[in-house]
Amino acid sequence: MILVFEFSLSKELEFFREVVREFAEEEIAPIADRIDLEERVPMNLVKKMCEMGLMGVPVPEKYGGAGLGEMGYAVLLEELGRVSNSIATTVGAHTGLVLNPLWIFGTEEQKEKYLVPLARGEKIGAFALTEPNAGSDAASIQTRAVKEGDSYVLNGTKIFTTNGGIADVILVFAVTDPALGARGGVTCFIVEKGFPGFKVGVEERKLGIRGSSTAELTFSNCMVPKENVLGQVGYGFIVALTTLDGGRGTLSAGALGGAQSILEEMVKFVKFRDATGNKISDRQMVQWLIADTAMEVEAARYMVYHTVSLIEKYYTTLASGKRVSRVFREKLSRKTAIAKAYVSEVASRAVERGLQLFGATGYIEGLGIERAYRDSIIGEIYEGTNEIQRWIIARDILERGLD
Amino acid sequence: MGIVVCVKAVYDPEEVRVHKRTMTLLIEGLHLKLNPLDKYAVEAALKLKEKWKTSVTALSIGPEEAEDVLRRTLAMGVNKAYLVTDESIKDHDPFLTAYLLSKAIKKLGDFDLVVCGEKSIDWENRQVGPQIAAFLQIPLLHRVDNIELGNGKVRVREVFDGEALWVESPLPAAITIIKGGNKPRFPSPWNISKAYRKMRVEKWGLKDLGLSREELKAKTVTKVRRQFIFERKRETKLMVEEAEAASDKLISHLNKLLEEI
To answer: Under an 8 A CB cutoff, do A16 and B72 touch?
Structure first.
């Protein structure tokens, strides 16, 4: 067993964190509750973030991004998750699920046309994979793409698409060859919201992350030019899995931010709150809640940045056109599944403890605790439920063995 | 036309703990940050840069690590950054700081404006800006939240106790900035990576300023007699006497409190 841990943050990224934290504290935190109450994407704030350059953090400068890599993107998500999971989700779906696959699989023309404006924040992206009959079992998608001349004609419905209602560019997965199924029969298409036949359907109302858009998208004879195939025809599942293998790992940084903020709130509260003549921080039971949460957050933070450093290596290698060994890919897939499931559950446990500690004060609206409670749960569900993650982890361990 | 903006790298007082016995500051593991008010100074300078197509140079004195704080000014948009750093200038008081900064400003060459934050969040001496003006023998425009340039002159709004006053001065001049007017911009990720990868912070030692360590010692005028934690106590004392007797009593009471400090 060789243990390699190389994930110190550079000074550049420490500084980036400082700036994002200031931005989050000044521009997002004061309106985080309002964003949740209004139940829609705060477009003014998103516009501000686009202009500031927060929508293209990992992408190389050459393609309109800041070139701060997956580590920079994780720093961004942690700090956004610390103040609003709605905003972290919006940025995460755009960055992790759209920019990265375009960067890795796109042709130079596609990068010029789509990646650059997306990374500059001039456009917003969404990733449409899930369907009514294909959630965790993504191989069962039914949206069809049939070639007609120089175009593909798409028909079908996607649901639960994050950013669906606000996206300009959508990556859509459709079946091009039903006989081949998931391995070779699915293709990823770059769809613009203006393409005829594309429509945004119902916007879902949700338990949490209410300030993010989750929409149904319909395609009825939607014409997509053949040069908008991302990767190759039949390559869709590789695009999707490569995206999700990395994306879910980096996304766990958002959950880490959520856990961190609850820990901070708990510490502030127990030092201030009196009960029966003492600060409640004097009570051992309360101290243990703090200690347990601190232990888990600490473990989660190491896990997140270690995993993200591997994702950065993975994506940089792929984007440079080099191959990645199967062993590395499997190892990465297991590690990101571990981080995704563990950190999202750390966040949920932290917020459960926090809510109990705050009592009625946390249960009512306004302190952000009940919002955090509702917001944390999605971490256990999206980008592959934690049950799917456990399946990935166990399958890999049982087939390949422990490291 | 050139603007020099002087900035300081500080520890956030919220983060710094004080060793109760030795009264030293426990700063291990903390990051130096750009003094909050200096962000406003940089912003004011950058606004002038954008409008008048001038160049802005950031200047600081401090330990090597202060370099990161100057990177922030580069990421905000200043053209060049200089750090005066030397082992021997560790405990610099405001007078020495102003002296060294004015030396460095002269070395930078022609300038029209020197812009500083009015005070730093750590010691809050509020002396460096005015003293730079004195060393450079240029007019001082103090506690400013608004700057306009034109016809070889500068017009500023000075604010004292909520009263504002527009003042005009010939160039060059020194300006101290207070909050208001210019909300500092957030450096974009694009500029952050540029500041770290494509730009550099020029470092000057004492020798570059033509100074020796002995000269430096002679310029240190502040002597710290005692350090202690000031505890803010509120107490009400009633003195029920004839007016004159009560005032005598009050004066002697206040004198006693002063002695305790």
So the answer is: no
